[in-house]
Design goal:
The protein is an alpha/beta fold. The protein folds into two domains: about 10-55; about 75-155, Signal recognition particle alu RNA binding heterodimer, srp9/1 (2-Layer Sandwich), CATH 3.30.720. Helices cover about 20% and strands about 25% of the residues. It is built from three helices and eight strands; from the N terminus they run βαβββαβαβββ.
């Protein structure tokens, strides 16, 4: 197959500035350069290192208004994923630092072990209702012992909903 990797994804953000700032503040993205698309095109490219990963634009003037997602997503909301794309995923590092940042900012998140794999996951929602999955290596999750519940399958939850 000729496809080698995901180039980037574009978010049409109801609240453009808040979306850009959310990815910077919560996930550590940085604004970076982008081609000149002309004065009529407002866009921000967000980078991880040298790669542009997320492109954010405001809705066009003639776009149909969509209801704003609830900024206070519950764990159940996050587990249901977004639509039509269920979630986007990133490989990540420094899980404790990341979840501490979420706690400081009041960002709701879920944590889980990925189906008996040596992969631990954290799920959050951006201001547009997009579910974001962060995958961490097992060695960063020593304090998560016993958290093997599948956060994305509420029917499997036993007792407390797994939250951060």
């Amino acid at each position: 197959m000729a496809i080698s990797h995901l180039e980037h994804f574009l978010v049409v953000a109801q609240d453009y500035k808040a979306t850009v700032q959310w990815y910077i503040d919560n996930l550590g993205f940085e604004e970076g350069p982008h081609p000149d698309f002309g004065a009529d095109v407002e866009v921000t490219w967000l980078y991880l290192g040298e790669r542009d990963i997320i492109h954010v634009v405001p809705p066009r003037a003639n776009d149909e208004a969509r209801p704003a997602p609830d900024p206070n997503a519950t764990p159940e909301d996050i587990a249901q994923g977004s639509r039509p794309i269920h979630h986007i995923a990133f490989r990540a590092a420094n899980r404790v630092e990341m979840t501490d940042r979420f706690k400081e900012r009041g960002v709701t998140y879920l944590e889980q072990q990925a189906s008996k794999e040596d992969l631990y996951q954290v799920f959050v929602r951006d201001p547009n209702g997009i579910t974001v999955e962060l995958n961490f290596p097992a060695e960063e999750a020593a304090d998560m012992e016993g958290l093997a519940q599948l956060a994305l399958r509420p029917e499997k939850w036993k007792g407390e909903v797994p939250t951060g």
